Hints:
The chain has 7 helices and 19 strands. The chain has 2 domains: about 20-35 and about 230-320, Carboxypeptidase-like, regulatory domain (Immunoglobulin-like); about 45-230, von Willebrand factor, type A domain (Rossmann fold), CATH 3.40.50.410. The strands form 6 sheets. A 6-stranded mixed β-sheet has the order 7-6-3-8-9-10, with helices on both faces. The protein has a 4-stranded antiparallel β-sheet with strand order 13-12-15-16, with no helix packed on it. Helix 6 links the parallel strand 9 (about 185-190) and strand 10. It is elongated and about 95 Å long. About 20% of the residues lie in helices and about 30% in strands. By secondary structure, it is an alpha/beta fold.
Amino acid sequence: MIKYFYKKISVILLCTWHIILGTFFLILCTCQVKAQKPNTPPLTRIEFLFDASQSMYAKWQSDTRYEIAKNLLSEMVDSLEKINHIEMALRVYGHTKKFPPQDCDDTRLEVPFGKNNAWNIRKKLRDISPSGTTPIARSLEECGKDFPEDPSRNIIIIITDGIEECNGDPCAVSLALQKKGIVLKPFVIGLGLGKDYLESFNCVGNFYNATTEEGFRNVFNVVISQALNNTTVQVNLIDAKNKATETDVNMTFYDTYSGAIRYNYIHTMNVKGVPDTLKVDPLSTYNIVVHTIPPVRKDSVKILAGRHNIVGIDTPQGDLLLKFDGLSDYRNLQCIIRKKRN
């Protein structure tokens, strides 16, 4: 007679308790398990959303804000053009109409996405004269239509010296674009803005405030580095003895800000007992759910760009001891555990 050490479960003699099949529907319903080819960077599209409103004519250290921003962006696109997996575009607002009166539709895609278009971007920047208002929300919404539909990492970099002036909600627009999977969390570079602007832009994207001309150059370099750096993650699933031995379980990475599913992985280890190295995008903060029974989650996991990150999650899973009276040949069998159905 078989003695059960756990009630209300059915035992199928196949494999161990920690192999869980009930969560595989997640992969079929949402996205495929990721398989990445080594040394093949994904296509990255960067759209520069450039402020050419009237206030950009203000003097800022060696020149006007517009001239300083234009010159640095021109240098940057020259460098980026040399990277094979980069495509760039330029959208400008506040430059086709005079203020006053206020025209909140003053936004235009000046250079569509493409390779080898640094010269086109530089030329447009030379031809533009700041003159109008600041419709950031409307411009962001239009950015969402600028990206081609084929798969890529889509990034928006906003360069501005002011906040929304047309009663739009840039935060809501940014969140909607991220939830739809159109863009990653945007970057916002403020030119000489005060600390009181931080709250206005933090919900739009990763906000960096350049208080000086040299600071602007440094911030721009940081933003580009974060957008392009190769970043990896290793997830250690910790057992009851505080060792990283748990494995063979599905885990999902959710974007903390938008709630969108970014990655699904099956956690495995190599022959040395080391968990997989995963390539993830450092532009998001993640809620990681490990689909044990019950699921375990770790929220607001920040990934440092350009380095190997190790994330530990406590996921101790139990073992079921079975004893068979008079059946010595069936010792040490492995099994699947399922909840008993009513």
